[in-house]
Amino acid sequence: MRHLFDVGVTVNGNRYERTVEPRLLLSDFLRHDLGLTGTHVGCEHGVCGSCTILFDGQPVRSCLMFAVQANGHEILTVEGLGTPEDLHPLQEAFWEAHSVQCGFCTPGILMTLVPFLEENPNPNEDEIRAAISGNLCRCTGYQHIVDGVKLAAQKMSA
Amino acid sequence: MKPPPFEYYAPTTVEEALVHLSEHGYDAKALAGGQSLIPTMNFRLAQPSVLVDLNNVSELFYIRPDENGGLRLGAMTRHFQVERSSLVSERTPLIYEAMPKIATPQIRSRGTFGGSIAHADPSAELGAISIALGGRFRLRNQTGERWVPANEFFIGMFTTLLEPDELLVEASFPNMPPRTGWALQEVARRPNDFALVGVAAVVTLDKKNQCQKARIVFLSVGDGPVEAHRAAETLTGQTLTPEIIHAAAETAATADIDPGSDIHASAEYRRHLAGVLTRRALDLAFERAKGRG
Ligand SMILES: Cc1cc2nc3c(=O)[nH]c(=O)nc-3n(C[C@H](O)[C@H](O)[C@H](O)COP(=O)(O)OP(=O)(O)OC[C@H]3O[C@@H](n4cnc5c(N)ncnc54)[C@H](O)[C@@H]3O)c2cc1C
Ligand code: FES
Ligand code: FES
After folding, report:
1. pLDDT digits (tens, 9 = 90+) for B216-238
2. pTM of structure
3. Mutation pick for ligand 1 pocket among B43, B119, B159 (CB with most ligand atoms within 8 Å)
4. How far is B45 from B257, CA to CA, in rounded Å?
5. C-alpha distance from B68 to closest chain A C-alpha (Å)
């Protein structure tokens, strides 16, 4: 029986090699082993959405995967989306529309919306609300988030 | 919380996966999308000592037409793949229509068809739909395989005919006959949450527009999918007038099901929803059947 497994994974364009126990959650691997604490952890049962990352381009709950399963795959976390000097248009729109209060839900919401906006460049309000229905926000009441997404859609199609 | 330690195997073939399952019996669990298994492990409600990860078993990922006009889905086909498949929309539009209602996009990225069926959550759409469509499941162990009709597969809360050494490898759906209509109706608190009550209906009409066959299957009202046999019988041989449909919905809600109460809804409210949703589902299925000459 093997207790430890080697994992080689590309995160935000950088290659990482680590050795992990199979029970290590991907969310904890990103946060503790790689120090990428932008991915937040709220519930660890798939409900709050704060741990959402892109796994091979698809939005997934990183709390519902094991790190060992990421071997050979490609991940994008919020750290790879933009930099303070060069924000992603969605981040810029969230800033301008006051879509962030405490910010706990924000990374997960951004990572959910990036692929959504790629597939739906011009979403209506219902579509936006359905898209973020798997992300809980305790602060904003969602209205400013919806405004931020609309603004982002405008920016990105301009 | 965090899951307790387990032994981990990541086979690349079904054969190899079955070896691990047979060796470890009840201590082992298959890991499909993990969207139901990992949360229960994180809360230590499940503590399997061995996980057999199916995510590298490429032979289990497919959506295929079958020669009789039906559809075959490999067990590891992910919800988002089913959701985007034009073949699924042509051959099993009921499944296609249900997909966006199953969990959130982030969960559909990982969750699998076979995982949902094997997990047998009474609130799962795919179990009820598989019965409504007359689907079958192929189960394999090291010595061979067997086919189980969907309406015999579910035997209780989170319990199926799957033995610990078996894998569900495929779901198969027959060709939908002409003049067949379908519908899924549900009420959930958020668009892609588990439904408080849901119902799938499939109706086939004869040349005189009379109902030749009807199947009505509920989710979230019992220990598993619940088929409304009595209501369906009242429809057979009938012209589906609004009165007949209304009466059948009444029968379904009062005689076919015995829903429970929980923090989300009382039994009484579930019964009420069951009646309304069955009526809507039958109306829509009937309309669609007439439109599919
Ligand atoms: C927040 C949230 C909301 C959800 N909402 C819904 C919803 O509205 N409707 C709905 O239907 N589902 C919902 N789900 C469940 C989701 O659809 C799951 O993906 C699905 O139930 C399980 O599929 P999985 O592939 O993730 O299976 P896993 O979690 O990997 O496995 C589930 C169980 O099935 C067994 N198993 C898996 N595959 C096989 C196989 N091939 N052979 C034998 N045994 C197998 C496993 O051993 C395990 O016991 C939700 C999940 C979450 C976390
Ligand atoms: S921490 Fe993953 S969904 Fe809440
Ligand atoms: S901004 Fe605080 S949880 Fe969303």
Report:
1. 999 999 999 999 999 999 999 99
2. 0.97
3. B119
4. 29
5. 34
